Amino acid sequence: MSSAAIDPTPRTAPADRDLTLDLARVVCVLLVVFVHILFTGVGRNADGSLLIEKTVEAQSWFTAASWIANIMPLFFVVGGYAARAGWRSAVARGETADAFVRVRLARLARPALPLFLFFTIALGATRMLGIDPALVDTIAIGVGSPLWFLAAYMIAQALAPLMMRLHERHGAWVLLVLFAASLAVDAIRFLFVGGVLGIEPVPPGGYGLGQELFGIPNIVFVWLFAQQVGFFLYDGWFARRSWWQLILLIAGGYALLWGLVSLGGYTESMLGNQWPPTATMAALAIIQASALTLLHAPLTTLMRTRAAQGAVFLIGSRLMTIYLWHLPMIMVLIGIELLLPLPLPAPGSAVWWWTRPVFLVVVLAAVWLLSLWLIRFETVPAPGVAVVPSRAAIVGAVLLFVLPIIAITAYGLDFPLAAVAAIGAGAALCVTRSQRR
């Protein structure tokens, strides 16, 4: 997540800054971390062998909870709000769209580069040490699962200047076109590719042409839809709705969600509709933007307190590092638990559930210590008096950055893809480095 999506709250916030958005970012990231902790059930079987399971996914309530707890569309909504605000400031400073995209790319690629280098070294070491490839794949695929956001958000931000111009000219028609396009992609994927051609999804860690690859165009259509909703949020469209209209939007969004799921193809769990994204994520974007607006008054009251502002700043100042490094840190901490002669609570047991909040605090503390060094990668140096690279160079850099990440998300994290992603991120930063006059 770029600092446009996860923008740390300044110590002294401008008077016109909406701190409820900073609170939403922090809460959303903490929820992502906690859900990943609940997914990571590691223990030992009766025979002493290692047990790895997705504990929370096996719970009867998980599917229903995912209709509320899958807050990834909200990231793009808030990102759209931030992009519109940032673009207006950039225009006022005389910056071009190319400069705007270059800064967004740097905010993503800089903190991602050390992560990809870490994955490359760690996965290379497992090969040299001869560790069980099946175990490595299981861990690596899970650790690499959140990386899709980097590619999706970068694409949305790169197209933000164009989409804002379309928003100003055509308004809600842009939303309708994007939603119709997402439905068309879903129809091709589920009805033609999965139904007529009978192509099955690629299994985790496998390669080849899978059904889900035909849904990749929705990375553009669905997440641009959510970003456009953020433009409407910035313009005050949702704020001008009365409370009962917002409730109707939420109810209508869930009715649309239920209608889509009942058609078939879509999974009942919203987690399964996240990659590749389906039209259900667009419906959630409307729902979550409406809910955020409905809660704006109490959240504003909360954010007037020094305690809330301090907590949001404390966590928000490292939010990018928390998102990128929390899963590797979870795995490292679990590995330490396995090495120490300590009893592990059985995944899904009462003790396991009660200790998850404690484990969340431990993970956040460990990532915070790590961030004391990594924070330098979250800061984008000011270009000063510089010549911004050409548009062709910026487009090429965006592709260098996002294509390896899409491959990782489609096929799973492994040593070759981690190395390619590290090279791509480094090359993207080199290509877009401003040249001093």
UniProtKB/TrEMBL annotation:
Keyword Acyltransferase: yes
One MF annotation (Gene Ontology) recorded for this entry: acyltransferase activity, transferring groups other than amino-acyl groups
Keywords carried by this UniProt record: Acyltransferase, Membrane, Transferase, Transmembrane, Transmembrane helix
UniProt cross-references to InterPro entries, sorted A to Z: Acyl_transf_3_dom
Cross-referenced Pfam families: Acyl_transf_3
Ranges that cross the membrane: 21-41, 61-83, 112-129, 135-160, 172-193, 213-234, 246-266, 278-299, 311-334, 354-375, 387-409, 415-432
Assigned EC number: 2.3.1.-
Enzyme class: transferase
Domain Acyltransferase: from-to ranges: 21-371
Protein name: Acyltransferase
